[in-house]
UniProtKB/TrEMBL annotation:
Record carries keyword Cytoplasm: yes
GO MF, one example: ribosomal small subunit binding
Protein name: Ribosome hibernation promoting factor
Family: Belongs to the HPF/YfiA ribosome-associated protein family. Long HPF subfamily.
Gene3D superfamilies recorded: Ribosome hibernation promotion factor-like, Sigma 54 modulation/S30EA ribosomal protein, C-terminal domain
Superkingdom of origin: Bacteria
Any GO BP: negative regulation of translational elongation
Residue ranges of domain Sigma 54 modulation/S30EA ribosomal protein C-terminal in the record: 130-183
Length: 189
């Protein structure tokens, strides 16, 4: 597995890098088959250290976790604990997901845009209703079942996931609701 361990405006020593590789490697190998790479970023927010880990798995899934603590090692340990909890929760489904599929997840290419937000006075009317495009990127929309889409969304820690429904061959959306449940939008095609 390939590791990329970095710090934003802080120095990451070799002892911490070794600790991260050993601990994260142990957690991931216990629950996931053939992880491809891990990206761990340390930063400082006021008096706390922040650790964010993103792990790409060979099944096409991405797992992520984030934690805060006053000590940098504690921040990583809490982050690794969250990652382990996510992977343990989905262990059976992670392994079944790879076995049930005869072919890899099919991806459809799409354009993704970042739009400028209006930071004007909320009471004033905007001059133009056309949004200003700040950036344009390519993204992939996976072809998944609804259960797989929920698993992808939760492992990535994302609030929403757009996917192509394998059963109906149309675009669908799953999202985290304010009440903690999962919402699923399935438009009639």
């Amino acid at each position: 597995m390939r590791y990329q361990i970095s710090g934003k405006h802080i120095d990451i020593g070799t002892a911490l890098q070794t600790h991260v590789q050993d601990e994260l490697g142990a957690v991931i190998s216990k629950y996931a088959e053939r992880p491809t790479d891990a990206n761990v970023i340390f930063s400082k927010s006021a008096h706390e250290f922040v650790c964010e880990a993103i792990v790409h798995l060979s099944t096409g899934l991405t797992a992520s976790a984030k934690a805060h603590a006053t000590e940098i090692y504690s921040a990583f340990d809490a982050c690794a604990g969250k990652m382990e909890k996510q992977l343990r929760r989905y262990k059976r489904r992670l392994k079944d997901h790879h076995r049930e599929r005869a072919e890899p997840v099919e991806l459809m290419q799409a354009s993704s845009y970042i739009l400028a937000s209006d930071h004007e006075d909320e009471d004033s009317e905007p001059e133009n209703l056309q949004p200003i495009i700040v950036a344009e990127m390519e993204t992939s929309i996976p072809s998944l079942s609804v259960g797989e889409a929920v698993m992808h969304m939760e492992l990535a820690g994302a609030p929403v996931l757009v996917f192509r429904n394998e059963g109906k061959d149309g675009l669908n959306v799953v999202y985290r609701r304010d009440d903690g449940n999962i919402g699923w939008i399935d438009p009639q095609n």
